[in-house]
């Protein structure tokens, strides 16, 4: 049997790795579309969205290979798929802690998504103070030759949690030495302050929402219009009368 020409091998490898990576990219596209729809639905029906913004990322093939070698995993596409679960990552940032669990529930209610693993670093923060909810979600990707199921790691956190985590990463990025105890303690104190701010802002928001709700009850203006796709429409009150007559 003739050995494959090096150029043909390279061409085939490029094709295979491109397809492999594209499946994860498409899984991220699926997740972002779902989150965008949930965000718009919640905003339209509740005049509020628990989702502030999202950010996605794909590990590079080079980064994947380094991790496979470092962990001594099987060097094959199936080995990568079964061993590395964070090739595709989606971060969802929200306003309040309660929003985090609301978003989790919305994702769980998606019939085609399966939550394979959950790590709650909010109820159980890491020793350094890190807080976030991590979900490992299996996502179906529909391709021309069939369906593939791949994992997307979803991190859900508040703005304050994201601020702390982003700066912590910048401070210690590529810092290979042991961190002095004093800095570790200050970092943990900063995380505690961020958590206290989250709790305070949620309490203030709850109070404001109660006041707004009381004001709405005394005004009909709130119920005379609807917002769809950032467009304002007048509520067809005559239609309501016809529907009521039809029920009689």
UniProtKB/TrEMBL annotation:
CDD domains for this protein: NT_Rel-Spo_like (cd05399)
**Which pathway, per its entry?**
Purine metabolism; ppGpp biosynthesis; ppGpp from GTP: step 1/2
Q: Which residues form a coiled coil?
A: 187-221
Q: Which keywords fit this entry according to its UniProt record?
A: Coiled coil, Kinase, Transferase
InterPro entries recorded: GTP_Pyrophosphokinase, NT_sf, RelA_SpoT
- The chain positions of domain RelA/SpoT read 56-179
Extract the PANTHER family matched here.
Answer: GTP PYROPHOSPHOKINASE YJBM, GTP PYROPHOSPHOKINASE YWAC
Give the GO biological process terms: guanosine tetraphosphate biosynthetic process
The species this protein was found in: Paenibacillus glacialis
Tell me which Gene3D superfamilies the record gives. Answer: Beta Polymerase, domain 2, Nucleotidyltransferase
SUPFAM superfamilies linked: Nucleotidyltransferase (SSF81301)
Does the record's keyword annotation contain Transport? no
**Is Transmembrane helix set as a keyword in this record?**
no
Q: Which Gene Ontology MF annotations are present?
A: kinase activity
Q: What is this protein called?
A: GTP pyrophosphokinase
Q: Which domain of life is it from?
A: Bacteria
């Amino acid at each position: 049997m003739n050995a494959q020409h090096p150029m043909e091998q390279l061409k085939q490898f490029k094709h295979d790795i491109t397809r492999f990576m594209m499946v994860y990219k498409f899984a991220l596209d699926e997740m972002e579309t779902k989150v965008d729809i949930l965000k718009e639905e919640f905003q339209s029906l509740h005049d509020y969205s628990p989702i502030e913004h999202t950010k996605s990322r794909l590990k590079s093939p080079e980064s994947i290979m380094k991790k496979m070698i470092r962990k001594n995993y099987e060097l094959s596409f199936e080995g990568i798929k079964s061993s590395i679960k964070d090739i595709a990552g989606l971060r969802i940032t929200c306003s309040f802690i309660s929003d985090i669990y609301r978003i989790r529930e919305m994702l769980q209610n998606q019939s085609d998504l399966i939550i394979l693993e959950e790590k709650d670093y909010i109820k159980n923060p890491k020793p350094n103070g890190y807080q976030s909810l991590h979900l490992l979600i299996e996502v179906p990707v529909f391709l021309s030759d069939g369906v593939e199921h791949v994992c997307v790691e979803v991190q859900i956190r508040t703005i304050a949690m994201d601020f702390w985590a982003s700066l912590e990463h910048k401070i210690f990025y590529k810092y290979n030495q042991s961190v002095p105890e004093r800095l570790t303690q200050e970092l943990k104190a900063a995380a505690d302050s961020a958590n206290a701010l989250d709790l305070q802002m949620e309490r203030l928001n709850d109070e404001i929402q109660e006041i707004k709700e009381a004001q709405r009850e005394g005004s009909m203006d709130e119920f005379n219009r609807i917002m769809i796709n950032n467009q304002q429409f007048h509520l067809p009150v005559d239609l309501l009368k016809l529907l009521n007559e039809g029920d009689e």
